[in-house]
What does this fold into?
Amino acid sequence: MRLITWSTAIVVWLLAMCHSFAQETTLQALKNSKEAIINEEKDLLKAEVEKINKQLENEEITQEEAEQLKTATAEKHALNIENRIAIVDNKIALIERNNTVEVIDDEDRAVISIGLGGKDKDGFIYIGKKYKERKYDLRTTSDFVFAFGLNNAIGDGQSLNDSDFKIGGSRFAEIGWAWKTRVFKESNWLRIKYGISFQFNGLKPTENRYFVDTGEMTELQTFEGDLDKSKFRMDNLVVPIHFEFGPSKKIERENYFRYNTHNQIKIGLGGYAGLSLGPRQKLKFSTDGENVKQKLKANYNTNTIVYGLSGYIGWRDTALYVKYDLNPIFKDNATDLHNVSLGLRFDMD
It folds into this structure.
């Protein structure tokens, strides 16, 4: 939890620095634009006066008509300068009063807004076309997902005590993006959480062994020398889906409302399905006084389709996370091995 607290503090500090710099730069750009507006309107006035003089030279208009046109044109551009500078002054006042940054391109299309929250912590970063008003009811949100912990593989009727893999040395990691949608319109007790993730499942065999593809099956065999390291890793791309339930706090404002689950217990039950991106094996050993590292990449008779069950229980951004592959790791082995993982999961929105 201390790691999350410090990382959050660093992000807030960086946002504050970016906000201060962006605000100062934007205000200076707006102030400089006043002079650009005056020069632009003067150039337009000069071009129109030259056009009027040309009409006079060609006797298309009289001297009196030319003077009237010049007076009207001068008044028009003087008003343009006044109105356009007033718009810039209003933008400067808006930014200073609300402590926000708004940058609009030359065609008034793209907008970048950065804001730091007040008492209700409604800080925001928005990049897109025009500023979008806050939606009254936001039923779908998204967050970054990261998990890591211990990994292992067990056969049917086998326990971790009988495992062929090091319990402390075998690990997993998962990284992805998830969306969460409220199921019911008037209640937030049930949500569907879905997304896409990369899973990295590692296994370290015990007793100086490594995996060998014999052609008919893949099995653990004893290495001829002394292994300093033997690691088998399986990378998967999966789509996880969980039903998440638990209490939440409803926050109501004048023009929107939200359900907040940050300080509440969350429970998620579901599963995942996807594709294996291919296994690989890493061996480290010494031979004839030289250190050798081998990275072996092959099919190893692993299943291409992966699927399983998973669940989590947590509070705030952190949860205890478990997942279990229903598919066997290898296709034709005499004993089916299933990957199992236990660790911590962080959902950071």
